[in-house]
Amino acid sequence: MKKILASAVMVTSFVTGVCFAGDKSVPYSAVNVSKNDNGSGYAAGVLGNTRNSADSVQYIQCTVSGQAGSNTQYVSCSAKNTAGVTLSCGSSDNNITTMARNISGDSVVLFTVDPAGACSLLYVVNGSLSAPKSPF
């Protein structure tokens, strides 16, 4: 839990700290995955940085899905770091689905996973500090 809070504080400090025009301080240059023996853990990364990385291993993503005629939406998030460690979660919690709808292509994303595999926290930052994806 201390690692999760430290990561969230680090992201927040980059977002809420004093910034100057053109500041490009980003909290994660690669996807960070921390997985515990019981399956819980957290993953964090900057979507633009991940897309722009030279390797073809790491990724971080969240998907929102819904079904016609149903008011329920479902979020699934997954990540893989350069060492190949993966973490994923799912949730139909309204707070999690609302946060997931705020993710843009260049967001900073941090999610936590409980031992049952549910997303217990989804933290999204959109701002000028995050690197945009390079055109390919």
Explained architecture:
With 136 residues, the protein is an alpha+beta fold. It has one domain. 21% of the residues lie in helices and 33% in strands. The chain has three helices and seven strands. A four-stranded antiparallel beta sheet has the order 1-2-6-7. Residues 9-20 have low confidence and may be disordered.
Topology record:
Elements: H1 2-16, E1 32-35, E2 41-46, H2 47-52, E3 59-66, E4 73-80, E5 86-91, H3 94-100, E6 108-113, E7 119-125
Antiparallel strand pairs: 1-2, 2-6, 3-4, 4-5, 6-7
Mean pLDDT score: 83
Beta-strand portion reads 25-35%
How many distinct domains? 1
Round the Cα radius of gyration to an integer and report it: 15 Å
How is the biggest beta sheet arranged? 4 strands, antiparallel
Distance from first to last alpha carbon:
38 Å
- Provide a count of the helices: 3
Helix/sheet category = alpha+beta
Spatially, the strands of the biggest sheet line up as 1-2-6-7
